[in-house]
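User: Hey, quick favor. My workstation is busy. Could you predict this chain's structure for me?
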Amino acid sequence: MQFRQHSGRSRNSDDGVLPLINVVFLLLIFFMLAGHLAAGDPFAIDPPKSQSEGQNSPQDMLILVSADGRFALDGVEMSEEGVIEAATQRLKAQTDSARPNLRLKTDGGTPANRVVKLMQQLREAGFQRLKLLTVPET
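Assistant: No problem, here it is.
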């Protein structure tokens, strides 16, 4: 006497594919979302070329200057005076031991006199360390 179990569904080789498709689809969604978590600059910057390299600290502030005269501090677009004022306030809020560096990222087409003027204003505001960001020359 033989007993057969019949569940009403036939078992074939394609039954294991559906869970795999679900996993791949979920991974695709995860990587699509994770790829957009880093905020970009508020406007495009093409930094000047340089032969030197430097290291950044996580507490550093970043000022962006576009070729057409727009300014941003840590990704927030504002006027030139607003950038200097906001950076000065953040500098005063820091303790002496944790003074942040100021990174200046300008477009390669920004007039040099505008960059020098901004650097002088920031130095007068109390910043002692200022890094001008550039791209390595190839």
